[in-house]
Amino acid sequence: AINGQMIVGALLNNLAIEMQNINYKSTELDVVSNVETFYITALAMQKTVNLLDSTLIRMEDLYESTSKAVEAGAVEQTNADQLMVQIASVKSSIKATKRSLDLIYNSLALQMAVGSDVKLVLTDNLDELLNVEDAVALLESDFNLNSNYSYQLAQKNVELEKKNVIMAGMAYVPTISAFYQYSSPNKYFSGSSPMEQQMGVVGATLSIPLWSSGKRAAAITEKKLAVMSAQNSLADAEDGLKLQHRQLKSDLSSAYENFDVQKLNIEVSQRVFNNTSEKFKYGYASSVELTNASMTLLTAQSDYIQSILTLVNAQIELKKLLNK
Q1: What is the model's pTM?
Q2: Integer Cα distance of 54 and 150 in angstroms
Q3: Which band of pLDDT confidence, cut at 50, 70 and 90, is reported for residue 2?
């Protein structure tokens, strides 16, 4: 027997496969975005360690020269003590950053589905991956809703509900049943020809529903309401995605501006620290001035790395929304 519900059911099955494929692509995009985020974060943390190591080396050199000056009676012991405290603080920051880096590596390995015994080696450089020009170009990109997987799923859901209405309406459509009856040879009727003895019968029946309960009509009404709900959800998804697009563009623009400020800030702070270190070395700057300069540099380094992460994450989120 063949009826309309069977035909529409086949169409629904194809639609379900399409929605499954969209979900698969959306999940794949999420994983790629997460891997990219953890990868960049790991590089940023490693750069933080490198910056701290560089500062530590400079401060240890100053501590060594200051200790010699203390022994010679040229400066007070408190100068060396203050440097020693600063060195201990930098070492603590390095250890904490390395612990965070280990956690990021573990998260990256988890996203890449590799075993815990596999050692990941990142061969890229943060400055190479930090493409500010791409971020600016992304701000000028148009938003094509149809390329967004969430919007595609909302569209498919409307199609699904519309086909459900058709499926419910097919309860009123006649059902066609075909049959074939084979007649075996009858040896008792010798006067019949061989063809007449073996002839089969082919036929079909048409079943027309003359009466149906109100449940079928109610089912159709229910499906139509589901279509309206899906259409409203699609409209909400469109408005929400457009709002999200504007917000992510604003976030990326702000992150880009802050990155420029922090990049200049770390350059200035580094020069001030270097200058103050030289003055301290020859007795033209106090230990307090050196401490303040070192603290300012450490803060600038932290703010600079954070601005990189904010910029990259904002870029990744916008790329994910635009499916680029």
Answers
A1: 0.76
A2: 46
A3: very low
